[in-house]
Design a protein that fits this description.
By secondary structure, the chain is of the alpha/beta class. It has a single domain, classed as FAD/NAD(P)-binding domain, CATH 3.50.50. It is 33% helix and 25% strand. The chain is built from twelve helices and 21 strands. Strands 10-2-1-14-21-20 form a six-stranded mixed β-sheet, covered by helices on one side. Strands 4, 15, 17, 18 and 19 form a five-stranded mixed β-sheet that branches. A hairpin with a 2-residue loop joins strand 11 and strand 12. The chain is globular. The mean pLDDT is 95. The structure holds flavin-adenine dinucleotide. The site of flavin-adenine dinucleotide has 46 residues, from helix 1, strand 2, strand 15, strand 18 and strand 19.
């Protein structure tokens, strides 16, 4: 089977890796080098198989006005973009109904439950297990009142099997992370989650694996999906037409742009996130630490400490807002006031591909035989990439996976 994969982010690469391993003749197309074109190089590295609580939780409607008004908030919608974002936000609020949240959490749990094992499988075959650490993640709260605001999400995660150890008091937190000096009195330690210490190298390793398995990586943009005889039969680039038995659309936040000309509308929005690197912060962390009030990740990586987070609406074209990245340095100081920030570098922005129900689109497109989707993993795209690749490749090449792809279907937005 000849297959074209559009997008060499971590989702497209893991899918291509499984397709190539399953015997398909795979070519990955991306206008950028593997991992460098989108969100996959700069994320926080958290591998969070138990993160089954969607972003839209019951009560979210009460928070939206605050989001619109607070320019320093962890989530920001600039007034100039509020109207553009409104239809997406309405769907987002609709997804927060309790019955819907329960179904979304179930679908996320089914997709992500063995994410770490799936990453290990690929990295073990590529000889790069050093990329992942299984030392857990640590969420910090100032007090119980603050924790109570997130209680619904933690209850949902517990119901789906997440093991959470509660650390009561700053000393208990320091037993795990001795350098913590901030004003945080409660910790939630999640021992069974992990992290990647270099997301760009991770993507490059998987790309090399695709080539090792006989696949091809081409640095070339895709201008359009090719329709012929009622199906998708390949893609058009700026210079040529490439035909194939199947096309996998894994173009992250840009995926909707290739679907619109063939009549498929998807409410895909970019949630712009930022990171700052501190090569020499002078503190030691053993795992990603998350000040939960700021929803920022402080992640130890190969190249130093990475501060990553913030959610900014604003579309794919607007230039980055350096102020958002600077907020991350303040988040760090709240937890580690002694950290050195003078060498800060790599102010980076990436586009999280977000659908309003926090579920990715995975699977075939009913209206266009030959077209398969793997995009929209939002805040969990590193985590979800390896399991998505494994399941999609099975669905395409057989034997049919023991997984109903219906909850992830693109057709859920047709109504
Ligand atoms: C600040 C931040 C922190 C994050 N932290 C985490 C985390 O800790 N854990 C986690 O699991 N997830 C995290 N994420 C989310 C995660 O990074 C993304 O969900 C994931 O990288 C998406 O991968 P992708 O392959 O779908 O898209 P991308 O990595 O964006 O790749 C899409 C690719 O498609 C290419 N492309 C687009 N259009 C075309 C075209 N027409 N032709 C050819 N190529 C095209 C682009 O060049 C790009 O390379 C974070 C994201 C951000 C921004």
């Amino acid at each position: 089977m000849k297959i074209l994969v559009v997008g060499a982010g971590i989702v497209g690469l893991c899918t291509a890796w499984h397709l190539a391993r399953g015997g398909a003749d795979v070519t990955v197309l991306d206008r950028a080098a593997p991992g460098e074109g989108g969100a996959s190089s700069g994320n926080a590295g958290a591998i969070s198989a138990g993160s089954v609580a969607p972003l839209a939780m019951p009560g979210v409607l009460r928070q939206v006005p605050g989001m619109l008004l607070d320019p320093a908030g962890a989530l920001h919608i600039p007034p100039r973009y509020a109207l553009r974002a409104a239809p997406w936000l309405l769907r987002f609020v609709a997804a927060a109904r309790p019955a819907r949240v329960a179904r979304i959490a179930e679908a996320l749990a089914v997709l992500l439950w063995n994410a770490m094992e799936q990453h290990r499988l690929i990295l073990a075959e590529e000889g790069a297990l050093d990329l992942i650490r299984e030392t857990g993640q640590l969420y910090l709260y100032r007090d119980r009142a603050q924790l109570a605001k997130d209680a619904g999400g933690w209850t949902l995660r517990r119901q789906h099997g997440m093991r959470i150890e509660e650390l009561d008091g700053a000393d208990a937190i320091r037993a795990l992370e001795p350098d913590m000096r901030g004003d945080y009195a409660l910790g939630l330690f999640i021992p069974e989650q992990g992290s990647c210490v270099n997301p760009l190298r991770h993507a490059q390793v998987v790309a090399r694996g695709v080539q090792r398995l006989g696949g091809t990586i081409r640095q070339e943009g895709v201008a359009a999906l090719l329709t012929a005889g009622g199906r998708i039969g390949g893609v058009r680039t700026a210079t040529e037409t490439l035909t194939a038995d199947a096309v996998v659309l894994a173009a992250g936040a840009w995926s909707a742009r290739l679907l619109a000309p063939i009549g498929i509308r998807v409410p895909l929005e970019t949630q712009r996130g930022y990171h700052v690197m501190l090569p020499d912060a002078g503190i030691t962390l053993r795992r990603p630490v998350v000040p939960a009030d700021r929803k920022a990740f402080i992640s130890p990586m190969e190249g130093g400490l990475r501060l990553a987070g913030t959610v900014e609406f604003g579309g794919l074209e607007a230039p980055p807002t350096p102020h958002r990245a600077a907020l991350l340095l303040e988040d760090l100081r709240r937890v580690f006031p002694q950290a050195r920030t003078d060498g800060a570098q790599g102010f980076w922005m990436g586009h999280r591909p977000c659908l309003p129900d926090s579920l990715p689109v995975i699977g075939p497109v009913a209206r266009w035989p030959g077209l398969w989707c793997a995009f929209g993993h939002g805040h969990l795209g590193l985590t979800g990439s390896a399991p998505t690749g494994a399941r999609l490749a099975r669905a395409m090449l057989g034997p049919a996976p023991n997984l109903d792809l219906a909850p992830y279907a693109v057709e859920r937005f047709a109504a």
